[in-house]
């Protein structure tokens, strides 16, 4: 799945399949300017910053069990968000400090370090990397991903895929080749 925020006409947190299909709103009320998003891949939670409402909130992948982690004026200065173990990590855009916040109750907010001009943050750790299994976009005997001549996108599951073409090309009637 792909998770993303939008604060155009109606602010929301959404998810869809990797090919853009099955787009679903998971948060569409009491939300104004969601500007950063982080996933807890293990427990299947979505965290986001709302700089207008000055809050950090969380829901499960279906949009249930919504909770506010923390609220306050300091939120409007945050950008970027990632989750690791018991904490959320974000950047304070005023002084470019990395902040650590307890993700269960919003306490223990602590500045850890400064990074000049930082606007995004990510944590990479072996446990959070999904195990690779066979999938529909694996290279075929001719080296084409999922048998697609240009781009292969996973669809509703790891066994389904959609072929797409690079800009300037159109997908052929076979659903795999680009012309």
TrEMBL record:
Q: Which GO terms describe its biological process?
A: canonical Wnt signaling pathway
Which sections of the protein are LDL-receptor class B repeats? 1-43
What are its GO cellular component terms? plasma membrane
Report the InterPro entries cross-referenced here.
Answer: 6-blade_b-propeller_TolB-like, Cueball_EGF_LRP_Nidogen, LDLR_classB_rpt
Matches recorded under Gene3D superfamilies: TolB, C-terminal domain
SUPFAM superfamilies tied to this protein = YWTD domain (SSF63825)
Which Gene Ontology terms cover its molecular function? Answer: Wnt receptor activity; Wnt-protein binding
User: Which PANTHER family does this chain map to?
Assistant: EGF-LIKE DOMAIN-CONTAINING PROTEIN, VITELLOGENIN RECEPTOR-LIKE PROTEIN-RELATED-RELATED
Protein's name according to its UniProt entry: LRP1B protein
The species is Sterrhoptilus dennistouni
Lineage, uppermost ranks: Eukaryota, Metazoa, Chordata, Craniata, Vertebrata
